[in-house]
Amino acid sequence: PAGRILLVGEGNFSFAAAFCDAAAAARLVATCYEAEEEVCGRALAARNIRRLRERGAEVLFSVDCTKLKNYFLPSDREFSCIYFNFPHCGRKAGVVKNRELLAQFFSSCAEVLAEKGEVRVALCNGQGGTPADQPRREWHNSWQIVAVAAGAGFILSNIHPFNAESIHGYKCTGYRSQDKSFHIERALNHVFTQSTPLLPLKPMVCHMELGSRRVSFQVPQMLVDKINRGFLELNSEHPVRTVKEKLTAVLSQTFPIQSIDCPLPLLRQGHISGVCHSDVFWIIPSLEQNTSTEQEQNASTEQMANGLANAVLFSHIDFCGDADENVCVKVQEGTLFSEQYFLRPSLLFYVQTLIERDTFMPRTLGVLCGPVFRKCPISPHSLPVFHEVVFVGAIDKGMESDFIQMLVDSIRNGIYLLHQTVSGCRLNITLQEATSFETTELNKFATSESQVVKIQHSICVEMEASSSCEKGCCVGIVGTACGGAKCSGLVVVFASLNLDLLAMLVCGIADWRMLWTSDERFLGQFLGGKLRLFKSFSLYPPSYVHDISFWVPEREGFNELAFHTIARQVSRETIVSIQLIDSFQHSETARKSLCYRLTYQSCDRALSCKEVSEMQLLFRKKIQRCLHVTLR
């Protein structure tokens, strides 16, 4: 690695000497815990120290690796790489003491490591506790190195064998604090990097035109880091946009393409009959009013900066009991709408608007795309926000079956082509007959009869080898929609695809949350809009399991979707699984008790045990207040 290199915990300095031969010695700082007199009394160590100094390396003694900043001036605390080979507390120290040593070491590294630096820790086989150890120890009997490192903000980014034979002159020493060697067969080198911090979310206010009125609304907290990310913009290199562009190019070989560049409003108006209030993100917009004086303008600006608008403290409501603290508590007359609005759950309901435009041309394929928002249970492929692309065409009645078949064949060919350029494993794309339930579930978001659609097929993907998508993962739907007066005599055909799931499928991305990461190492793998297999920069992230049990309120019942939504919000999407593990009804009172198991895990950031414990405590308080459950 370039830059200054720090070696800690050296025994006989044989690793440092070998390293010095392979790298510029002037950049090397080799340290050990023992005093100079003790170390130089060993013949091999004394020879290696002389060799290091002759080559210009810096050698330090009595250095405590848990307090590294104490040994270097502030200007010298920018190491590009820190090595710690086979750390141990000495003698017969157990796993707990060695975990504590590593925890303090990683915390110390964070104070002297360069921004994109690495920490490399070599451990004997089995000590790390990762799946790379073969055989793998039981978790409680390992050093749990990934979880320990997470406490200091580090993630495991690479792991490879420690090949002592390839290090000329290296001799391990220090068995039970003696000048004796120990077994390092199948030892592993763990490479850690610093993760992006989990910053607190600040309230975000969106401004938009709603008809002839200028309005604003507060973005729901769990969507703050997902609004206005620009994945589909022209200069974006995000794989979601690349998949959309390449798929559209394939379809253009069969159909005339008409891109729809008109902005589609984030908000939809109207009461949705038969829809559980918690299925969508409900919004109450606030009218923006011009202030006449400078003092009033400053006050208005200050209010907006704090997520306020025209004396409306918050303008987002959730209808999950009190599932969100965003409740309107002070209203000036005329600042709120009487209508109900919600964030768009699909672009299909803009199809009628599209085909009624003067610029829409029948027998062409119109393309709509953008992010959509739905509340959904926590599962690997349930996405509360994703990018949808809708292909729309109007065809003569009686020709719709042939048109649908051509459209499906083109989409299938496009997905095959995208996948084959990236991955070698076989792909099977099938059409499944849509059920009446699927059509009903989608149409519950329609606010008028003209927006009702009929789903005919689901587009499903099966992978021969393991992949990011489960067997039979649905990535889209095909069907027909109402055409309106302009398309009299024509049938409107559509295909709706989940671009996020397609990007995951094509690039081998196992976790949908990775698409939304702010870590530059994700987009860095897709420079120039080139699709390739994604290589995770966070290996074997630690997971933490917490159980929670409670009595369900007798009158109100229990809204499980609201339970999942609160879990998403409180955990910042770090809960990857919620399982009902027990249900009990009291024989005398008939009260019902539920017990859920929550699994926390981050795909891109360091997540510590302490952070999870704090989230779980907050979650317990939140469901008590919002869902009115009684904790057990």
TrEMBL record:
- PROSITE patterns associated with the record: FDX_ACB
Show the GO MF annotations: ATP binding; phenylalanine-tRNA ligase activity; rRNA (uridine-N3-)-methyltransferase activity
Which intervals hold domain FDX-ACB? 539-632
The EC number(s) this enzyme carries: 6.1.1.20
| Official protein name in the record | phenylalanine--tRNA ligase
Q: What is its main location?
A: mitochondrion
**What subcellular locations does the record give?**
Mitochondrion matrix
- Catalysed reactions, semicolon-separated: tRNA(Phe) + L-phenylalanine + ATP = L-phenylalanyl-tRNA(Phe) + AMP + diphosphate + H(+)
The keyword Transit peptide belongs to this UniProt entry's keyword annotation = yes
Q: Which family does it belong to?
A: Belongs to the class-II aminoacyl-tRNA synthetase family.
Q: State the organism named in the record.
A: Eudromia elegans (Elegant crested-tinamou)
Q: What keywords does the record list, in alphabetical order?
A: Aminoacyl-tRNA synthetase, ATP-binding, Ligase, Mitochondrion, Nucleotide-binding, Protein biosynthesis, Transit peptide
Which top class of enzyme applies to this chain?
A: ligase
Any one biological process term the GO annotation gives: rRNA base methylation
Question: One GO cellular component from the entry?
Answer: mitochondrial matrix
